[in-house]
């Protein structure tokens, strides 16, 4: 049996929990041609991915607290069985039709105590946006050591739960890490306070618990059982504000946050090296297999490039001068089906590559852009649509250091 398949089945066999689908059977089926196919038989659960559900169903802070508590309970059971999920995100949480129950699914990236190592990269499995701070710092510290291996633990799952909760209520990811000069040398820290209440109208208790789950120090997050208890208690004890439907704040506030994404992404990718960073940019945009965000994306028509070296004009009839001004419905960021969308900016972002662009890039409005070859709209967060294709801004490489540490 495929070792990953076998490991997932073994982890599921250790779990019996109302918020994890039951493993009913496993084995190998041999086709008439003699080809072996591993299989598992799972409990059938019907549900909608969490972020998609959030787009279609208004929900309150109290409702969110209850759903997140169920995911935390499923994680607590996983950890008690000696396992880790390692890919907690909205796509892997299904919400029942009545919105009262969730299931944590897809343990394909999971592992358990005593399992043999299958990943030979320094970074953990799972989805990049949900990696914990300690995982990112490990990757930076051992960026030149191909044999290094990050061992994800329960604290990583709790961190990912916090990222998922933040995106659930705000529609965007938490602020990225930035490079800072520290006493021990260069390191990566949060330059912005985690404040979901600035992005959306959420209850203070929910905002505080989200901050706790994404705390820099793993010991400050609490284990999954403690987080579940805190979420359940908050759902019961929160005041009337917690019963109000969560709404997003003004488009200016959200656009300001999105405007920092490229700068933070650029810094965060430096430790991977720029060829890898460009590849990961493509992975980042397409890695979440249907995590489509929470707001509508509107395609922007642009004049095609006629010959190499000619810049393209990204102006549209409704485009305003600000690079990050939203286009379309004057209500701005309303919860609809689709994803976060910004018009193609009139000028390059800070940190974006300027012409001459590489052969594999497209020049638009003085900036260089990557076309995501296998991705079609809806593109997901932080990408731009042009002629039914998805694009990411190309990061410019950092300036070389004037001196090096011995």
Q: Any overview of this molecule?
A:
There is one protein chain. This protein has 406 residues and is of the alpha+beta class. The protein folds into two domains: 3-249, Transferase(Phosphotransferase), domain 1 (Orthogonal Bundle), CATH 1.10.510; 293-406, no CATH class. 29% of the residues lie in helices and 14% in strands. The chain has a four-stranded antiparallel β-sheet, covered by helices on one side. Helix 5 (154-170) runs antiparallel to helix 6. The longest helix has 20 residues, at 61-80. It is globular. The termini are far apart. Mean pLDDT is 75; it is low at 252-341 and 401-406.
Which keywords apply here?
10 helices; kinase; 2 domains; alpha+beta; Transferase(Phosphotransferase), domain 1
Mean pLDDT: 75
Instruction: Supply the number of structural domains.
Output: 2
Structural class: alpha+beta
Note the run of SSEs as H and E: HEEEHHEEEEHHEEHHHHHEEEE
Helix content: 25-40%
Identify the strand order in the major beta sheet.
10-11-13-12
CATH homologous superfamily descriptor of the largest domain: Transferase(Phosphotransferase) domain 1
Radius of gyration using CA atoms only: 22 Å
CATH class of the largest domain: Mainly Alpha
Largest sheet features: 4 strands, antiparallel
Shape from CA axes?
globular
């Amino acid at each position: 049996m495929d070792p990953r398949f076998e490991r997932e089945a073994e982890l599921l066999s250790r779990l019996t929990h109302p918020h994890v689908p039951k493993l009913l059977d496993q084995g190998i089926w041999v086709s008439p041609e003699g080809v072996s196919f591993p299989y598992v038989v799972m409990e059938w659960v019907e549900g909608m991915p969490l972020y998609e559900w959030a787009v279609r169903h208004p929900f309150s802070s109290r409702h969110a607290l209850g759903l997140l508590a169920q995911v935390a309970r499923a994680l607590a059971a996983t950890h008690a069985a000696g396992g880790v999920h390692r890919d907690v995100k909205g796509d892997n949480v299904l919400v029942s039709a009545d919105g009262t129950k969730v299931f944590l699914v897809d343990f394909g990236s999971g592992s358990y105590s005593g399992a043999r190592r299958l990943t030979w990269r320094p970074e953990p499995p799972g989805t990049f946006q949900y990696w914990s701070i300690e995982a990112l710092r490990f990757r930076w510290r051992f960026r030149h050591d191909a044999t290094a291996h990050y061992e994800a633990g329960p604290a990583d799952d709790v961190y990912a739960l916090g990222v998922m909760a933040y995106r659930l209520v705000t529609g965007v990811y938490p602020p990225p890490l930035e490079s800072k000069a520290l006493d021990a040398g260069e390191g990566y820290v949060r330059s912005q306070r985690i404040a979901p209440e600035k992005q959306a109208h959420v209850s203070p208790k929910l905002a505080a618990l989200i901050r706790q789950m994404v705390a820099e120090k793993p010991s400050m997050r609490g284990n999954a059982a403690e987080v579940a208890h805190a979420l359940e208690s908050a759902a019961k004890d929160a005041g009337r504000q917690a019963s109000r439907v969560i709404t997003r704040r003004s488009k200016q506030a959200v656009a300001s946050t999105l405007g920092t994404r490229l700068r933070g992404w650029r810094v965060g990718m430096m430790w991977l090296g720029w060829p890898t960073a460009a590849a990961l940019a493509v992975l980042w945009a397409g890695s979440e297999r249907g995590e489509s965000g929470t707001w509508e994306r509107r395609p922007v028509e642009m004049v095609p490039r006629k010959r190499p070296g000619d810049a393209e004009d990204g102006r549209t009839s409704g485009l305003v001068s600000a690079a990050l001004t939203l286009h379309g419905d004057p209500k701005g960021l309303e919860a609809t089906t689709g994803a976060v969308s910004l018009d193609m900016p009139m000028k390059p972002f800070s940190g974006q590559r300027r012409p001459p662009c590489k052969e594999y890039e497209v020049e638009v409005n003085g900036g260089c852009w990557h076309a995501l070859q296998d991705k079609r709209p809806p593109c997901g967060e932080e990408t731009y649509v042009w002629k039914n294709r998805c694009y990411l801004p190309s990061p410019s490489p950092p300036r070389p250091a004037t001196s090096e540490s011995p």
